[in-house]
Amino acid sequence: MSGTLYGLGVGPGDPDLITLKALKILERAPVIAYPAPETGDSLARSIAAPHIPNGRVEIVIRTPMVPGKFPAHDVYDRYAAEIEARLDADEDVAVLCEGDPFLYGSFMYLLSRLSAKHSVKVVPGVSSLGACAASVGVPLVSRNQVLTVLPGPLEEAELEAHIQSSPAVAIMKVGRHLRKICRVLDRLGLMEHAQYIERATMPEQRVLALRDVPRDGAPYFSMILVRHGETEAGV
Amino acid sequence: MSGTLYGLGVGPGDPDLITLKALKILERAPVIAYPAPETGDSLARSIAAPHIPNGRVEIVIRTPMVPGKFPAHDVYDRYAAEIEARLDADEDVAVLCEGDPFLYGSFMYLLSRLSAKHSVKVVPGVSSLGACAASVGVPLVSRNQVLTVLPGPLEEAELEAHIQSSPAVAIMKVGRHLRKICRVLDRLGLMEHAQYIERATMPEQRVLALRDVPRDGAPYFSMILVRHGETEAGV
């Protein structure tokens, strides 16, 4: 027998945006695991904190956060081995994932290492896309429009081409790419159509017109939404 | 005083994929409303059914589903007026929305009519995007890739251009557009990279390689996921 590895979407920030399904798994999994920076707290754990029962084994997946770099293979090899030992002992392991596990989530690094030999189930979560749109109060995309989701680290020319060809754009992982993104939107004449959202659905949430955001930096977990096609006005 | 209009994401299908936040609002809202076809059951209501307390006033927003047409203005004018009467009587109204209210949701038709004079709050939900990826067991998008979300009704040339320029594509509202979409993917040599998902997370869920799907039609609530960039293999 072997335990099941769960990728649990815990939602974008508000602990009440967790699903019943994730809650039920959290209540019975003997082992939980979650990503964290090399030092400091885990965002995923802090989101799920009110729902984590006492007495669970906790595996903290500490990965160096180097701008522009994805984690080294050996880091995930090591954590996958630690998790695998639990699965081999017939214990279920619930991995907490911010937002949705399969939208740019680091859960894939465990999936690729463990899915061949173990049962893996993914529980989708509320993603930051829907959360940011809800915080702004404007649909992400409507009718038969294209929605393009862009990571902020993309090269300037690539960002520009995609933004130009899509009426609805969500730019994620803004962080230190804020100035570059603003340059592109200025050039395309779209600055007035851009909204900035930081830490959506958390107590520290900030929603601003992008033109009002100081350009000296943004947290990694921030997003820019741009709508420049037909909108809902008068629908 | 006036009641609050809630747009409640109820998730993609499995009733357990509703959020705690939506549940809490459902427990106390005296009036619920939901979209439904001209005859027959409401999908949004069937998803939320186990969580709807007895004795609620229910407003069924029946709209004609004409292929290629969006609902006529007067239909939503009428339902918005009915809902507004409840808000004016200081009653909260919870509108049930499949998936996430702001990802192609019809909630925008109520929002645009009622937000000027009433308090409106949107509760994001688990969208079909994350749900379909979870059902297939493969990330929607990873690392610094672009994700493009395309409505199936788009013209063939537009679908082709967007699919070609994005390593990760989700095509929604497949329905009667299946044959056209398959033609595009065949032409681009991407048929082997496409997965088909129908009624994700519901008991009737079907997940198939797109090449194995009969091309004579699909339900409206079906999706095609295409990955043709760098994937997780060996990550």
Calculate the terminal CA-CA distance of chain A, rounded to whole Å: 56 Å
Q: Quickly give the CATH architecture of the largest domain in chain A.
A: 3-Layer(aba) Sandwich
Secondary structure: helix percent of chain A: 25-40%
Strand order in the largest sheet of chain A = 3-2-4-1-5
Number of strands of chain A: 10
Poorly predicted residue ranges of chain A: none
Oligomer: homodimer
What does this protein structure show overall?
2 copies of one chain form a homodimer. The first copy, chain A, has 235 residues and is of the alpha/beta class. The first copy, chain A, folds into 2 domains: 120 residues, Cobalt-precorrin-4 Transmethylase, domain 1; 100 residues, Methyltransferase, Cobalt-precorrin-4 Transmethylase, Domain 2 (2-Layer Sandwich). Helix content of chain A is 29%, strand content 23%. Chain A has 7 helices and 10 strands. In chain A, strand 2, helix 2 and strand 3 form a beta-alpha-beta unit. In chain A, helix 3 packs across helix 4. The longest helix of chain A is centred in the middle third of the chain and has 16 residues. The first copy, chain A, is elongated. Chain A starts with a strand and ends in an 8-residue tail after the last strand. In chain A, 49% of the residues are buried.
